[in-house]
Amino acid sequence: MEHLLSVAVDTGGTFTDITLVDSRTGKLFKAKTPSPPEDPSLGFVTGMRRILADTGMRAQDVSHVFHGTTVATNTILEMDGAECALLTTTGFRHVLEIGRHDIPRNENIYSWVKSTRPVPAERIYEVDGRMDFEAHELAPLCEAQVRAAIARIKQRNIKAIAVCYLHSYANARHEQRTRDIITQEYPQALVSLSSEVLPTFREFERSMATQLNCYVMPKVSRYVTRLEQRIADEGVNGRLLLMKSSGGVTGVDTIRRQPVQTALCGPAAGVVGAGLVGRLAGESKLISFYVGGTSADICLINGGDANVTTEGHVGDRPLSLQMIDIHTIGAGGGSIARFVNGALMVGSMSAGAMPGPVCYGRGGTEPTVTDAHLVLGHLTPRLLNGEMTLDVAAAAKAIEERIAKQLGLTVEDAASGIIDIANNNMMGTIREVSVAHGYDPADFALVPFGGAGCCIAIF
């Protein structure tokens, strides 16, 4: 039988969504399952088995598996990636810490604190050797310093190493030689070269992109490898294609080397879909609004397709790769409400899928946006066709003990406050993509997607 089935998979921080398309009939079939944080690929397997069983289709008839994942996005937002080291040119050790002197538009200039860098200065090693911007070698690479740095990194058991040398976008020879040395001295390490991740000038942005690539590489690489193996184990012979932040797709080998390309791939796929929905509805001006379990991703479409930028951000960290112009903040259904320096904050820390919001009954103790919606009656206590029951009483108790008592409010008022703060954070981002660029948001149709996004749009 000819392969006539395509499967699309979106792995979020909380749930995995599976969609199967039968090209013979044009019918769509959907399934939803939790994303186990210890191995999100298990969510794919569970969903795949369920959707094939429900439809009576065969795994061997699947020709393509299209996949979008927020693994890299959530890793960056929650800052729970790999312990990394960085090799850089002598004199540039503090580039990441210095950064740029601008303050985010929606932040208070008197209280804003620069975000924690993905690698501290004590894990950054300087190496002599320099190229100029015309690709000429001004000083040879000091291989002895490289070997000494690798020895110290190996001693600390750091297995993810970024390499970012001055002007390597013009001549990558020193970075490539450094990788050769790392392979000889420390073959277990994963290596990320700036000349491959972002071969353009501007040291801070190139260093940040390379370091973030290194930061998410172990987690994303493990995930992709497991996913590929599980697809084979399920008898699926179709090709696995992964979504990129630019709106295109690529193969697994590219993502293993450059996992940061997937940093906004899930929301990017949603933006492409939102654009199609807008065209079918006769709406050319759209603000797409994705809210999942961990993040909120907002994009403006002013006629046609969404803009592509090289000045994107994930949270407050610049990521200068080519991507759809999406603005991401740590505000989702699983965003935790807590007091920070006496002020109530919502996000960017997320409860994820395990333990998840308190109402999931998996051991969560800190109230989340989902708990607040449930307490206020915005969510039904039964999800996934009755397979998942939410604990309203536990959610109310957590909000009362952690939030309401400290503010002297009722549980309902505290829950409303949590949602108001989360909504205000997202409204700030909507203003940033619209008003800050001269657009009146009243002229645009709002296209929400994601579980929490639809809940917010309804209520």
Can you describe this structure?
This protein has 459 residues and is α/β, with parallel strands linked by helices. The longest helix has 31 residues, at 203-233. Helix 2 crosses helix 7 and helix 4 crosses helix 5 (173-185). The protein contains 13 helices and 24 strands. The chain has helices at residues 41-55, 71-78, 95-98, 143-155, 173-185, 194-197, 203-233, 252-257, 265-281, 369-375, 392-407, 411-433, 451-458; strands at residues 5-11, 15-22, 27-34, 62-69, 84-89, 124-127, 130-131, 137-139, 160-164, 190-193, 239-243, 249-250, 285-291, 296-302, 308-309, 312-314, 317-319, 323-324, 326-329, 335-340, 343-350, 382-383, 388-389, 445-449.
Q: In DSSP terms, counting alpha (H) and pi (I) runs of 4 or more, how many helices?
A: 13
Give the class from helix and strand content and strand pairing: alpha/beta
Widest beta sheet: strand line-up: 3-2-1-4-11-12
Largest sheet: 6 strands, mixed
How many strand units?
Answer: 24
Q: Rg from C-alpha positions?
A: 23 Å
Distance between the termini: 47 Å
Helix fraction bin: 25-40%
- Proportion of β residues? 15-25%
Residue windows where pLDDT falls under 50 for at least 5 positions: none
- Would you tell me the overall average pLDDT? 86
Q: So what's the overall shape? A: globular
